[in-house]
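User: Can you help me understand a structure? I only have the sequence.
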Amino acid sequence: MTAPTLPGLEPVAPTPAAAPRPGSRAARMALPRSVDVLKEIAAEYGVCVRPLAMRRTDLETGLTEVIDLPCGATREDKCAPCAKKNRRLRQAQIREGWHRDDEPVPPPQPASEEQKALILLRGHLEFARDEASRACQYDQVEDIDDAIREVEDAITAEGLRGRVAPPHGSVDDDQGDEDTGRRRKRSTKRRQDAPDLPRRKVERRTVGKTYTGPDGSAYRPSMWLTLTLDSYGPVRPDGTPVNPDRYDYRRAAWDAVHFPRLLDRFWQNLRRCEGWNVQYAGCVEPQRRLAPHAHFAIRGTIPRDVLRTVAAATYHQVWWPSVDVQRYTLDRLPAWDDQASTWVDPDTGLPLTTWNEALDAIDDDPDAEPVHVVRFGVQVDARGVMPGTQDAERTIRYVTKYITKQAGDCHKMTSSRQRAHLDRLWQELQVTPCTDRCANWLLYGVQPKKAHAKLKPGRCKGKVHQRDTLGIGGRRILISRDWSGKTLSDHKHDVRAWVRALLGTTVGLDGVDDQGASVEPVRHAWELARPDDADVPSLAHRLLRSISERARWRSELLAAKDRAAQPHADETTNGPASTTGEGQ
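Assistant: Let's start by predicting it. Here is the structure, written out as tokens:
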């Protein structure tokens, strides 16, 4: 039974909004902007929306033209077309190196007789220099050094990699480091709270194990691995802590800053434990609780128990001065003494502890402990992936899901509780030292390494202190050196070579590659063109021209693909008929 409604108070159905009057301001504002449509079409065709205008001059003919080069941004908020292109290249790089059954890097070629002769000549010069130095014939030493430099240049020109020997003289002159004494050494003895790992000699192979099925078929699976950090307190499903006062933000900030070194230690331990050069390709991204974790594609298979054991036994110790007490705040900071060229206490005028003095105190203390120890959490997710399956492609897309976004944009903050959690973590990151030269050391009464007057405590320009990075200041794309045997530039060259072969051309479509290098670098001279130069068109004109050019390229590429697929279709459909026609 429903309650009676008083007369005149019956609910009225909402009337649909009337269309704005033609010619009114509301009607004009409802029309799409032509500039936005232009950028949308540019993104659809993969045209860089903020190209770099470069002036190219032909040194033979003197012809000068302005060429737009892509900005090469890797983030969508800067340039979505370039970021998506970089993501596709990373996916191709992971796909090419993940399930390889051969070594990607061939062994070095044997040295030629000319190369061996140059090395022998370099040895004779080294012997002569040693004899002249013993006899205090320094004028001959200078002449021999000049000859050594010429031989070194000849060795490089002959095609040998690297340097035969370090140059003579003061090796550390260009470093300007104040540490001129002994090198600091830390004990390599493992911690008592970490399990021991077997150590084997690492073989020079990167290919995993081959398995044989019941039917006799051979297959070589690979793996997908996820590594996370330890817990800092209970969290809700949205990633916010249940009790913010008990959440360990300090340890979360320190773990995020030193997470790259922990990953390096993990791969070192895994290779020593397994006994072969394990290869990986992955990405570092934040969890919903804003702590970093990493996804990796691993070539070959490793037992899950081994992965969990290595993760539990991996740690990284930070041997830095103590940060238990913050002696200064942003309202009361140390002062710079111009006469003494040092930082001093604002009240007493006494100089702060230098970086070397702080490290010497740690070395002299037999009971000293590291200021922080980074460890992995108990959650280690690993599973096998077969090559050529949909699971493999899905995993590649998952690994590269957030590489076009800033770390702080991976998870949207939709509630005040999430924004407050981010603010508390960022406030801790602002006062956390990132390196031995970080200005934040002044907040703890220690002068950083190579201290100078321009340091601003609490305002270090390091990436880990920025709000958008969440403490992830290093590289987020981590690919081992022998993954595919190619760099990202090599993969870009492979894509261009595939397009040229499909179109039947031998040079690029515009004479330049995606990195801005010309096809004939010796023939052309490049310089940056200013936007206000008379020969530089407006950005809208350049985008329109690039869209038209890219549309023609796409049409030619699709037509070439159809022509390449046509013979296979003819052989499949009209194979017997064509054979009969040839016989007649």
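Now, to help you interpret it: Residues 539-583 form the longest helix (45 residues). The mean pLDDT is 85. Let me know which part you'd like to focus on.
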